[in-house]
Amino acid sequence: MKAAGHNSTKNYWPVGDSDRSQELEALRAELNEEGLFDTDRKQPLPSFPANIGIITSLTGSAREDFRESAWGRAPGVTLTFFGATVQGKNAAASIVGALQQADRDPDIDIIVVTRGGGADDTLWCFNEEPVVRAIADCATPIVVAVGHEDDETLAEDVADKVAMTPTDAGIVATPEMSTIRERVGTIERRLQTGYETVVSEQLDALNRRIDNAVVGLERAAETRQARIQRAADLEQRIDTAYTTQTGSRLDAVDDRIETALQEIEHAAETEAVTVRAARGRIGGLETRIDRAYETHITQETEALERRIESGYRDIETDTDVQEAKQEARQLRIVILVLVGLLLLGVALWAGGLL
């Protein structure tokens, strides 16, 4: 126990009941002032622990009492025992070491510190400051059960949960699986009933929706069939109107084509007559031209011949007979050229008349 300050710790109690009581109350007041007994710092126990660490004597009856109680309520829970001396001079150090070991184990969900009841002298180790502070420092929830109802210790005051005996600690640290199974069964039955009710209601609602959908589809099918029939009737009317209109227009077109063909044939006949008459007139004109041309050519030729004959006679009287002949040949060439030009002019004139 600490006499003054946190760094000076006594691991024994003075001789004499009055001195022990005074030291105990002084330490209780100090720890209470630090808030170690406050309710808001106490951790809740897990509802379904998988592994419980038990700090107790491995040879005492507390071990078996706790095992029987815990497994009677939760047969599947794992119990991990950490042996410790729970009374005597070395008890405080042994309990602190076991607490630290159990708190470091990540698999431990709850730590239970317990022993069987005994006289006040055998329980003083659970009032020693190192034990009390080690319990307060644990991150794992702790249950302390170190005596009977009249044996109150500082370890119980700082613990997260207190039990009177090891048997009671087994009840505090474990769930009542039979009760839980009954509750689970009740919940399952309620869920089954609720599920059946909900499913039945949902099925009824779904059936109603399906019936409504079927009715809607039937109506839509009827409407669609009526539209198809109206479309068929309209198509028939259009075909009839088209056939009638097309026939009338084709007849009119045939009449117009027949009339146009007749007009074309008449025009062709008229044109043929006109062409034949023109060709007759052109033929007569050609004959007249030919005759006039022949008469003109004959006259011109006779005149030229007379001139040539006169020139020839003149040339013969010339002393240079050869030059006269050469000039006569040139005159003939000129005459031939003139005759060619005259024929070409007549041909062009006749083509213009055609």
Show the helix and strand layout.
Elements (H helix, E strand, L loop, with lengths): L16 H18 L16 E6 L4 H13 L4 E6 L7 H14 L5 E5 L5 H4 L5 H9 L4 E4 L8 H5 L2 E2 L3 H8 L3 H141 L3 H33 L1
Parallel strand pairs: 1-2, 1-3, 3-4, 4-5
Task: Give a verbal description of the structure.
The protein has helices at 17-34, 61-73, 91-104, 120-123, 129-137, 154-158, 166-173, 177-317, 321-353; strands at 51-56, 78-83, 110-114, 142-145, 161-162. By secondary structure, it is of the alpha/beta class. Strands 2-1-3-4-5 form a five-stranded parallel sheet, sandwiched between helices. Helix 2 (61-73) packs parallel to helix 7. The termini are far apart. The model is unreliable at 1-16 (pLDDT under 50).
Short description:
The protein has 9 helices and 5 strands, in the order H-E-H-E-H-E-H-H-E-H-E-H-H-H. The chain has 354 residues and is of the alpha/beta class.
Question: What composes the largest sheet?
Answer: 5 strands, parallel
Flag low-confidence runs.
1-16
- Overall mean pLDDT: 82
CATH architecture of the domain at 17-175: 3-Layer(aba) Sandwich
What is the count of DSSP helices, taking H or I runs of 4+ residues? 9
Provide the β-strand percentage band: 5-15%
Structural class: alpha/beta
Helix content: 55-70%
Order of helices and strands: HEHEHEHHEHEHHH
Count of β-strands: 5
Radius of gyration: 73 Å
**CATH fold-type name of the domain at 17-175:** Rossmann fold
Quaternary class: single chain
CATH superfamily of the domain at 17-175: Succinyl-CoA synthetase domains
